[in-house]
């Protein structure tokens, strides 16, 4: 997981799967962090999950998500 940067952090359970699908289609690899922690908290939505991408893909990933209407803070 070297040279990975945080692309987004969210408690929205639909946002990361959507972002991963869009980025996968664009050939950008992603890695999801904090999955187990959010499962342990019982899916009440208080612990965010993070989506990581390679540092060199960060700007392109943000652009691709924006162009596809995937809205997030970060």
Automatic annotation (TrEMBL):
Show where the DUF2007 domain sits: 4-67
Signal sequence, renumbered to the chain:
none
Say which domain of life the source belongs to. Answer: Bacteria
Q: Which InterPro entries match?
A: DUF2007, N-reg_PII-like_a/b
Protein name (Swiss-Prot/TrEMBL): Putative signal transducing protein
Q: Which species does the entry assign this protein to?
A: Thalassococcus halodurans
